[in-house]
Amino acid sequence: MQRRGALFGMPGGSGNRKMAAGDIGELLVPHMPTIRVPRSGDRVYKNECAFSYDSPNSEGGLYVCMNTFLAFGREHVERHFRKTGQSVYMYLKRHVREKVRGASGGALPKRRNSKIFLDLDTDDDLNSDDFEYEDEAKLVIFPDHYEIALPNIEELPALVTIACDAVLSSKSPYRKQDPDTWENELPVSKYANNLTQLDNGVRIPPSGWKCARCDLRENLWLNLTDGSVLCGKWFFDSSGGNGHALEHYRDLGYPLAVKLGTITPDGADVYSFQEEEPVLDPHLAKHLAHFGIDMLHMHGTENGLQDNDNKPRISEWEVIQETGTKLKPMYGPGYTGLKNLGNSCYLSSVMQAIFSIPEFQRAYVGNLPRIFDYSPLDPTQDFNTQMTKLGHGLLSGQYSKPPMKSELIEQVMKEEPKPQQNGISPRMFKAFVSRSHPEFSSNRQQDAQEFFLHLVNLVERNRIGSENPSDVFRFLVEERIQCCQTRKVRYTERVDYLMQLPVAMEAATNKDELIAYELTRREAEANRRPLPELVRAKIPFSACLQAFSEPENVDDFWSSALQAKSAGVKTSRFASFPEYLVVQIKKFTFGLDWVPKKFDVSIDMPDLLDINHLRARGLQPGEEELPDISPPVVIPDDSKDRLMNQLIDPSDIDESSVMQLAEMGFPLEACRKAVYFTGNMGAEVAFNWIIVHMEEPDFAEPLTMPGYGGAASAAASAGLDNQPPEETVALITSMGFHRNLALQALRATNSNLERALDWIFSHPEFEEDSDFVIEMENNANANIISEAKPEGPRVKDGSGMYELFAFISHMGTSTMSGHYVCHIKKEGRWVIYNDHKVCASERPPKDLGYMYFYRRIPS
Questions:
Q1: Which residues in 736-770 are b (16+ Cβ under 10 Å) and which e?
Q2: CA torsion, ordered 344, 345, 351, 352, to nearest 10 deg
Q3: Domains in the chain, please, with CATH?
Q4: Residues carrying an active site annotation
């Protein structure tokens, strides 16, 4: 038995007395009810701290709670003990030592190392031929820091021994994310071998898709039986739909669908409605060919590039990664890299850019003590905690330290560089932000722009009190639609977070060079000679900006002046300018052969950007507005019957449709009513309901359900029936929390004490802002927090003058493959972030970027 001195490396910790078995058992008796054996489904975190990137390889080791199986570094374990009262932790430490050299100078012959018993990921930065590992495990009992060395079968109670063995032998909770095992996670659909495909003559074009039941053009799924193109469910990354693909399956029973936009020569995202999960279709090429899609037109090579694109893509990879230049490594705060988990560079590049923005640094890292102290009982499942953890890891400098002078001398003498243990692994962050998302939860490459929008929505939904750092990206777009027949106009506004610029290929300034290159390339291919040096199209940025501002035709435009469909044109302008402007270059498209294509172009992106001329002007003198008449709501017959015969249960309201409408700026209660009274038929139908009813005085009032089988009377008495037990309220208030806060937490969690405490810790803004809980006891419906007066979207308008400070570049043929790299301007110079490698940039390829980040220049 040891005291704290030995554990924390204090002097005098080595000569401690050994206690008898009875003493150890006696010491553990009070804590036995809290020690659990991991069950199937329990996640055992023994590789990484929940609040930091400490691991058993860290100097202070790692502490695993023997009740929750969460892990904590030395500086965070006390917080968990104080919050939960859990006293027994397993301390894990891996010691790394340089191997003893033989007489000839080489390492001694390899032999089985019996001192390694932890199932931990080895550090790829350390060469196993030069280093050896020794693992240490012990039980630590707080608050006195008593230690019990492990293994200790003779002296420990049987339950404790079984629990310790189970923790030590448990697998990583992220094991399924490993590249070699991910694809095996997807089962082969039982419908793939004998899938019926209708000979209905349907042929799917390579672009211009639209849902057959609504006007959505994103998150579209192709049914592999009849070729119907229908929208999927709404996701919080601004992609999604009204669930028409699922409705189609329920109507006709056609089981398999493939997501449009994910089809590559290597496969695609296939979903089985009958099996209710993503699946593999071994006959996908044949099933797609039935509808005119040739997914195997081009075959991928081992490195993921296309055979006929090797020459241009290699050049692109060299330029963007600055290959051939001697890049100086950067260390310290703000210069920490992110290790690649296998196609996770899209996430790494976006997060490096995000945490270079002061507003995000202040919101998360600046509030670290408060966020960590108020984190829920399981901080691995809390967005704000994991954002703060990642931000601190990137900005603190703790995981980006330069090599010691002696190590540099050793490298020179041996003439071989020794990799440094730098960078952090974002496994826990990726697992949380991608859960329940079919694309980001996979181990395949993804679109950085889609992940950026997904992250913004997570920030919106998990904002800390009134502070929302994503406000810096939000701006209003004014859309002007003109009926071509009557010349009347309608002005509307919508919220957006990035500016999408088309590539104006027709404006290339080196057309003669491109024509000559193409002729030479074809001739070289025909004669099997080496390909000529790549000539890349040079596109003026001004031409892309001009293409963005030009009018575009509106498909299926319904003119309220004609009460019929008509031709219409739309122009877009900025109703407000954001604090930070994100510009995406729309480089990706599909060819006529359905193969993903990327415009390999060079655009002279400006360091200083002025878009003040794109400021919206509103209704102009002489313009006549279209009548404010909504198009007729067309309800399918089956849905009509469903609405007439039964009302949906209020608890079954489709929250995804509600959030989709709320993002447009409508009051939350109005959105809930719209979805309810249109029978969960999707956001589009609910939107039409809002347009019709938005002038009514009770438009934003809470939802009431008269005539719903007595629901009205039930709702009236809900406030009284939901009164939490007074003894539970007293128990929470005895912990120092306000009575109103205790009532709110218990009502939100059905009077479950443990969940109520978790709710309080995950909603610190309610404790600090008394406006949220005032007069709770006097309100019969106190479980509903009254909303303030409906407000418009929060925007930070200002000048349209911007300065470039970061950009993300993509290498590869499509967003489904390749690699992402981020360049950020820090302290007056450009820095390249290439996964875990962070170096000073010598030639930042600003003309080849995919996403650009601009900050406003104060006027």
A1: ebbebbbbbbbbbbebebebbbbbbbbbbebbeee
A2: 150
A3: 22-98+130-169 (3.30.40.10), 185-300 (3.30.40.10), 330-400+422-461 (3.90.70.10), 655-694 (1.10.8.10)
A4: 345, 819
Q: Which two tokens stand for residue 35?
A: 């020690």
Alpha helices in 678-725 (DSSP H): 683-693, 711-721
Q: What share of the chain is helix, strand, coil (3-state, %, to 5)?
A: 30, 20, 50
Helical packing angle, 383-395 and 448-461, nearest 10°: 120
* Binding positions for Zn(2+): 211, 214, 231, 244
d(CA 368, CA 362): 9
Q: Cα–Cα distance between 430 and 345 in angstroms, integer?
A: 11
pLDDT of residue 205: 83
| pLDDT recorded at residue 376 | 92
**Torsions phi, psi for 573 (to 5 deg):** -140, 165
How big is the CA angle at 628 (ends 625 and 632), to the nearest 5 degrees?
A: 135
pLDDT of residue 706: 42
The contacts of residue 511 (CB under 8 Å, 6+ apart) are none
Annotated binding site: 211, 214, 231, 244
Q: What is the predicted pLDDT for the residue at 227?
A: 95
User: Could you tell me the CA-to-CA distances from 651 to 234, 661, 711 in Å, in that order?
Assistant: 18, 18, 12
Measured distance CA(226)–CA(197) in Å, rounded: 6
CA distances from 726 to 77, 721, 773 (A): 33, 13, 18
Residues of the chain with pLDDT under 70: 1-22, 100-130, 175-185, 234-240, 266, 296-315, 405-421, 590-596, 633-652, 695, 697, 704-723, 727, 734-736, 750, 761-793
Q: 140 vs 5, 26, 77, 237, 623, CA distance in Å?
A: 12, 15, 11, 43, 77
Residues 6 or more apart whose Cβ sits within 8 Å of residue 667 = 699, 700, 787, 790
* b/e code 783-794 from CB counts within 10 Å (16+ = b): beeeeeeeeebe
What distance in Å separates the CA atoms of residue 303 and residue 308, rounded to the nearest whole number? 13
Beta-bridge mates of residue 608 = 803
Between CA 762 and CA 757 the distance in angstroms is 9
Non-local CB neighbours of 849 within 8 Å, separated by 6+ positions: 585, 605, 807, 808, 809, 823
**CA–CA separation, 277 and 510 (whole Å):** 49
DSSP for 673-691?
A: HHHHHTTT--HHHHHHHHH
Query: Distance (Å, rounded) from C-alpha 564 to C-alpha 566?
Result: 6
Report which of 376, 356, 370 is spatially closest to residue 469, judged by C-alpha positions: 356
Residue 48: name the closest of 79, 92, 89 by CA: 92
Cα–Cα distances in angstroms (integers) from residue 210 to residues 117, 201, 206, 215, in the given order: 56, 18, 12, 6
Of 496, 506, 530, 395, nearest to 53 (Cα)?
395
- Yes or no: say if 824 and 356 are a contact pair by the CB < 8 Å rule: yes
Write out the H or E segment, with its range, that includes residue 268.
none
Tell me which residue has tokens 């249960």.
Answer: 649
Q: Which two tokens stand for residue 276?
A: 């209710």
- Main-chain phi, psi angles of 229, to 5 degrees: -105, 115
Residue with tokens 């009205």: 712
Picking from 504, 497, 478, 468, the residue whose alpha carbon sits closest to that of residue 582 is 497
Of 815, 743, 816, 753, give the one whose Cα is nearest residue 781: 743
Q: Indicate the SS3 state at residue 596.
A: strand
β 499-502/580-586 pair status: parallel
pLDDT of res. 633 = 59
